[in-house]
Design brief:
The chain is mainly α. Helix content is 41%, strand content 9%.
């Protein structure tokens, strides 16, 4: 929906869809959310559902925060939502999931084609796990700032907003989301001579293989937000 900001307030256009996010009173529902669920949640919070109708998309999510203790165990490697799940603030999960794949993809190719030793895959966890941990910390902090505020939390919100209006803190925040640039840069490709040598090896030589596990859940050591 079109909107503009006037004197610090968001002014919506007279027509078009509006995005709404509300907290459910009871946690743990697993069924598909309905328009009635949304209407009841709005009434609980605001005393009215504002005549909400014709939804284009309704979903349910939580602030569950989890990270796999290890991104690699033998031939199984975790990436994306299999490696880390968190509150979907800012779409950060998509960013780091794609970055996981970029970091891991070329390493798998190097190992499978015998250009690099299997130990190269260990660098995937070393480089990507700290990035995921930072993003989880960031989303938990944002979740805390979204909760109903008392005077102290409101003061914290104003302080954070003021910091994010400055260039240096904003760059720092962006770095927390995307992580360091180095792990995303593929290392130098092997030379033609090295490639020819690798391909001349006996075809029955056992090759190292790996698979990317895309399960929806994973083991965890990360704390849940309170």
């Amino acid at each position: 929906m079109e909107y503009e900001i006037r004197d610090g307030e968001i002014i919506y256009a007279d027509e078009g869809p509006v995005g709404v996010m509300v907290a459910e009173r009871h946690v743990g529902a697993t069924s598909e959310p309905t328009l009635r669920d949304l209407s009841e949640a709005l009434i609980t919070v605001y005393g009215t559902d504002y005549g909400v109708h014709s939804p284009t998309w309704i979903t349910r999510f939580t602030d569950m925060t989890r990270q796999a203790a290890s991104y690699r165990k033998g031939r199984v490697l975790l990436a994306g939502d299999a490696a880390h799940v968190h509150f979907p603030a800012g779409g950060q999960g998509l960013n780091i999931g794609v970055q996981d794949a970029v970091n891991l993809g070329w390493k798998l190719a190097q190992v499978v084609n015998e250009f690099s030793p299997v130990s190269l895959l260990d660098t995937y966890h070393a480089e990507r796990h700290p990035v995921g941990a930072r993003v989880l910390c960031n989303t938990m902090a944002q979740t805390a700032l979204m909760r109903p505020a008392d005077a102290r939390l409101e003061a914290l919100r104003e302080t954070v907003a003021e910091l994010l209006s400055m260039d240096e803190p904003r760059k720092r925040f962006a770095g927390m989301i995307s992580g360091p640039g180095r792990p995303l840069r593929p290392r130098r490709r092997p030379s033609a001579a090295r490639t020819a040598h690798a391909r001349s090896r006996p075809s029955n030589r056992r090759r190292a293989h790996a698979c990317v596990h895309v399960a929806s859940r994973c083991a965890t050591r990360a704390p849940q937000p309170r």
